[in-house]
């Protein structure tokens, strides 16, 4: 999902766990998780786009990140955020 709908810029900014040779045998290599790069400066480094974006992506549930299309991804992402915001609401 990630590589199929993103522009070239985003593909250059992020690396999937499956693309790293030393991590290809891990269970996480079958997921859509992104590698969070190590940072030297904890204040500025955590706010870098490649670090913050990877953390946000990895925090999403698997049904959102594995959506087959952009339309489905948007729908599931909205549903996920709605359920976080209104967790006590019974429909």
What does this structure look like?
By secondary structure, the chain is mainly alpha-helical. The protein has one domain. Helices cover 49% and strands 0% of the residues. The chain is built from six helices and no strands. The mean pLDDT is 77.
Uncertain segments are none
What is the strand tally?
Answer: 0
Order of helices and strands: HHHHHH
Structure class: mainly alpha
For the record, the count of structural domains works out to 1
Which key phrases capture this entry?
91 residues; mainly alpha
List the helices and strands and how they pair.
Blueprint: H1 2-5, H2 8-13, H3 42-45, H4 49-59, H5 62-65, H6 70-85
In brief, what are we looking at here?
The protein is mainly alpha-helical and 91 residues long.
């Amino acid at each position: 999902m990630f590589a199929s709908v993103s522009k070239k810029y985003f593909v250059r900014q992020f690396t999937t766990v499956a693309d790293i040779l030393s991590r290809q045998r891990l269970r996480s290599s079958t997921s859509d998780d992104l590698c969070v790069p190590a940072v030297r400066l904890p204040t500025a480094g955590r706010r870098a786009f490649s670090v913050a974006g990877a953390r946000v992506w990895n925090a999403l549930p698997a049904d959102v990140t594995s959506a087959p299309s952009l339309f489905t991804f948007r729908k599931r992402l909205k549903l996920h955020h709605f359920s976080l915001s209104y967790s006590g609401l019974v429909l």
